[in-house]
Amino acid sequence: MNVRPISGASVDARGRRNKGLLALILGVLLLAVTACGGGGGGSNSGSGSGDAKDKASDTAQTKQSQAVVTIAPKDGSKSVDTSGALKISAAKGKLTEVTVKDAGGDKVDGAITGGGATWTPATHLAASTKYTVHAVAKDSAGRVAAEDSSFTTLTPANTFVGYFTPEDGSTVGVGMPFSIRFTRGITHPGDVKKAISITTSPAVDVEGHWFGNDRLDFRPENYWKSGTKVTVKLNLDGVEGRSGVYGKQTKTVKFTIGRNQVSIVDAKKHTMKVTQDGKTIKTIPVTTGKPGYDTWNGQMVMSEKLTVTRMNGETVGYGGEYDIKDVPHATRLTDSGTFVHGNYWGGDAFGNYNASHGCIGLRDVKGGYSKTVPAAWFFNHSILGDVVVVKNSNDATVAPDNGLNGWNMSWAKWTA
Questions:
Q1: Cα–Cα distance between 83 and 106 in angstroms, integer?
Q2: Is 341 a catalytic residue?
Q3: Domain boundary residue among 199, 231, 257?
Q4: Is the residue at 248 inside a domain?
Q5: Closest to 332 (Cα-Cα) out of 291, 364, 360, 366
Q6: Range 236-259 burial, b when 16+ CB lie within 10 A, else e
Q7: Same-domain check for residues 301 and 396
Q8: Residue 270 catalytic?
Q9: What is the pLDDT of residues 116-151, one digit of tens each?
Q10: Is the pTM above the cut of 0.70?
Q11: Cα–Cα distance measured from residue 301 to residue 281, given in angstroms and rounded to the nearest whole number
Q12: Among its keywords, does the record have 4Fe-4S (predicted)?
């Protein structure tokens, strides 16, 4: 009996063999995948590798500071105002460092305030100047955030300067204030006054006082102490003195106070006692203003010395009463025309009676050639800033702004 093989059995055998081969191949591939995934742990190992990546990303994000630094004006800004425009602040943190510099590397002074919330400059900025800003803040976790910026200030169309006395490097008398007159009337006096700083050695309190809107004088309460060194810093560049008008001056002025010389004129006794350091070194016969032309009373500071000058009554409201073209050894005491000067035409008036038009006259010779006459001696022993005090005249006390004569104002009014 012929028996035919069962074809199904043959197919199953081949299928089992194929399935076994397929299983072997899949096993090898699975082993390769787990090995590339880091190996060792089966399917859980692959899953663990993905979690590590996510955690690393989370850690990077948590290391970034939450503090936000804001700088105004914006980076690259032009024509920035010199006052009020520069502001630096921090949110979600506190400022720890702020540096503002100009192109030359000079730093702008300022202060962090509000517990680290803001920084503001201590003064105005210079005009036509590029500034760079570097600001750093920390959040509550101590993580740092920083911002850098730059901007350029405006170039003003209208400017002002100040003309001052005494000169840099000079030695002056104990009565010399630092006086500055501005080329434009000042309507922001506080800003201008703040832009002028005065330091002294030895230290003494020095205060400023405005006369009108174009003159600012500085002095201590009492006459300067001999030997005092005074340093004045004018930081007027960029300060807005009036609307749309900016200062353009940056300068340091230094001067020294010389020996203490104060001369006391008694209009009734017709004498002048010259004192140094409180001791009388010479008494000089003088003539002062005659009735109707009396000399001012009060403390007057020497502001100008002229070896020879012309004195014309027309310039001081006295018409054609006099015109002397060669007045010798003249030292100015007031803006209105009061001088101590040599007098070669006074005859016997010196020490005897008052004959002048308000000046203090000392005997001299025409041409002022003699060094031995009283006028020459006084002129040669005086420096700008020395004080002449007039008493017992029939006139009023000289106004504090008539010359450098602020000493005739009380300290309380001076500092009010």
A1: 18
A2: yes
A3: 257
A4: yes
A5: 360
A6: bbbbbbbeebbbbbeeebebbbbe
A7: yes
A8: no
A9: 999 999 999 999 999 999 999 999 999 999 999 999
A10: yes
A11: 19
A12: no
